[in-house]
Amino acid sequence: xxxxxxGAGRSSRQVRNFGTxxxxxxxxxxxxxxxxPGGNWSSxxxxxxxxxxxxxxxxxEIYYFEIxxxxxxxxxxxxxxxxxxxxxxxxxxEEVHDRDVVLVPYGWHGPAxxxxxxxxxxxxxxxxxxxxxxxxxxxxxAWLITDHPDQTWIRATWADQEVDPRLTGEGS
Length: 172
Known about the structure:
CATH class: Mainly Beta
Radius of gyration: 16 Å
Distance between the termini: 10 Å
Largest sheet: 6 strands, antiparallel
Shape: globular
Order of helices and strands: EEEEEEEEEEEEH
């Protein structure tokens, strides 16, 4: 399974690309797993994929979370944010716990934040209509996103930061 270390510093996370367009023929579904060490931000910068354009895919998304317990079994927690994008009003900031599910029908989503001391795992499952000019049965599966314009600058800071050493880059 292709594994990548994405981001750097406190935006480091491990992405297991088992069901992404380049790795699996799964019809309209796109899926991946993300591991975010405690105290780190993931799905950041916030991004969207709610328009079918040449540069963006219209995909609804489901996040399924597993949050590690603390050293004496204390319940873990994290945060997940979804906010309005043009033509799509939504404002949700949700505390997430182990085995919670969050639906992102549209809008800017991210960050997903792992509380310090609690590693966060989430499964992303996305699907949507074919892109313009494609048929429902043979449409291209594409995961095209648009970064939130107020946050995209953060990507440029990663070049000067190390990836979180708690991440191995291995698929286990």
